[in-house]
Amino acid sequence: MQSPLDRRSGLHAAIIMDGNGRWASARGLPRGAGHRAGVKTIQRVAEAALALGIGTLTLYAFSSDNWRRPAEEVGGLMRLLRAYLRGETDRLARSGTRLTVIGRRDRLPPGIPEAIERAEAATASGDRLHLRIAVDYSSRDAILAAAARLGPEGLSREGLSEALGADGDVDLLIRTGGEKRLSDFLLWEAAYAELHFTDRMWPDFGATDLAAAVADFTARDRRFGGLNPPAVPQAA
Questions:
Q1: Which of 66, 184, 204, 216 is catalytic?
Q2: Residue 66 catalytic?
Q3: Exposure winner among 66, 80, 209, 225, fewest CB in 10 A?
């Protein structure tokens, strides 16, 4: 029987970071203020993930559907991404965190794909935490593209996972902000993920919230479609 510590070691946690805009609106602030606060939360949660022994943390920052938002908001999000890559890469490298950005890059503003490549190269040796940030990401599109690259004769579960660049299956998927849907995020990788929904808006989410989600995860009975063996009676 695994202990809770054993079960969280190497854990792949994924978070749909929701609620920035509503957090700002509730305070009479523009939506951009919520996104700026949300970036600070990323740093806080990444540090908490290190302390909890989480192996991989995948964050949903910008979906492919988010391009439909007002141009001003999208532009602000892209500027925040650029600033994050510029300001956080050294700290991530020092902490032993490897940064990877998943999703399309051909539609990102000029200079950002190159900044992503520099950040990924600078943090490539990180072995304490793999921080994956999904930008211009659609799980459906990623699955279709991976299947097209493999072709019908090359399709297999293992091959598709590799083509998707999956860092193992997602164990725990968290969504902040009170909504209860997956929103086209890691649909393949999260096939057997434990789901944890919280009303906490992303800018207010912190180390205590992440620890509570991990504790909830470790208390669950994961059977993956099978049955756990019955407990062996202990001798008197």
A1: 66
A2: yes
A3: 225
